[in-house]
C-alpha cells in the first residue's frame, strides 16, 4: 500500500479512537439504540390495540414500577402477574383502538439503560356503553435492556390531556 493510504487509514483510526475515548462507545450506537427503542414502543402499542396480553407483558421487567404524578409521588411496584391480571380485567370492559407514542425525547444513559419522555396517544372504547375515551398522556419511561430486549422498568405519568 502507498504511504498516503496508510496515513489516511491511520488518521481515521486515531479519530475513531479519540471519539470513543471522549464520548464513549454509546455515542456511536445512539441512532441505532433510538431506533430499537421506538420499535419496541411501537410493538407495545400494537399489542395494546390487538388486546394481546402476552405481547404486552413481555415489554416490562418483573417487577416494574409505576408512578402517577397526577395523583401522588407514590411508587407502586407491580409484578408481571399483577400486570397480566389487570390487563385481562381491563380487556373485558375496554377495547384499545389507538396506542401510539410520539414527540419522543430519548436519553441514552449507556448501551443498556435509557429514558424516554414522550406523548402516548390512547383511544379506548367502553364495551358496555360504547363510549370512546381519548387522551394524550406525557409519560416518562425508564428502560433497561434484558437479554437483548428493551423493557420498561419504570412507567411515570407526567401529564394527561383529554382529547375531545
Oligomer class: single chain
- Tell me the number of helical segments per DSSP (H or I, 4 or more residues long): 4
Estimate the global geometry from the Cα principal axes.
globular
Main β-sheet: number of strands, strand sense, barrel status?
6 strands, mixed
- Mean pLDDT across the residues is 88
Beta-strand percentage range: 35-45%
Topology:
Layout: H1 3-23, H2 26-50, H3 53-57, E1 60-68, E2 76-78, H4 80-93, E3 94-110, E4 113-126, E5 132-146, E6 149-162
Parallel strand pairs: 1-6
Antiparallel strand pairs: 1-2, 3-4, 4-5, 5-6
Describe this structure in words.
It comes from Candidatus Sediminicultor quintus. This is SnoaL-like domain-containing protein. InterPro entries: NTF2-like_dom_sf. This protein is α+β, with helices and mostly antiparallel strands. The chain has a single domain (about 30-160), classed as Nuclear Transport Factor 2, Chain: A. About 40% of the residues lie in helices and about 45% in strands. The protein has four helices and six strands; from the N terminus they run αααββαββββ. It has helices at about 5-25, 25-50, 55, 80-95, and strands spanning about 60-70, 75-80, 95-110, 115-125, 130-145, 150-160. Strands 2-1-6-5-4-3 form a six-stranded mixed sheet, with helices on one face. β5 (about 130-145) and β6 form a beta hairpin. The chain starts with a helix and ends with a strand.
Output the keywords.
Nuclear Transport Factor 2, Chain: A, 4 helices, 40% helix, 164 residues, alpha+beta, six-stranded mixed β-sheet
Amino acid at each position: 500500500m502507498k504511504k498516503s493510504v496508510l496515513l489516511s487509514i491511520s488518521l481515521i483510526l486515531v479519530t475513531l479512537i479519540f471519539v470513543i475515548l471522549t464520548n464513549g462507545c454509546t455515542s456511536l450506537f445512539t441512532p441505532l439504540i433510538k431506533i430499537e427503542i421506538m420499535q419496541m414502543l411501537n410493538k407495545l402499542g400494537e399489542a395494546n390495540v390487538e388486546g394481546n396480553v402476552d405481547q404486552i407483558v413481555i415489554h416490562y421487567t418483573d417487577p416494574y414500577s409505576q408512578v402517577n404524578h397526577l395523583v401522588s409521588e407514590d411508587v407502586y411496584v407491580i409484578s408481571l402477574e399483577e400486570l397480566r391480571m389487570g390487563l385481562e380485567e381491563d380487556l373485558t370492559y375496554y377495547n384499545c383502538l389507538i396506542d401510539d407514542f410520539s414527540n419522543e425525547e430519548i436519553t441514552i444513559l449507556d448501551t443498556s439503560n435509557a429514558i424516554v419522555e414522550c406523548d402516548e396517544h390512547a383511544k379506548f372504547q367502553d364495551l358496555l356503553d360504547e363510549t370512546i375515551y381519548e387522551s394524550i398522556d406525557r409519560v416518562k419511561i425508564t428502560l433497561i435492556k434484558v437479554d437483548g430486549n428493551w423493557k420498561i422498568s419504570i412507567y411515570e405519568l407526567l401529564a394527561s390531556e383529554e382529547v375531545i
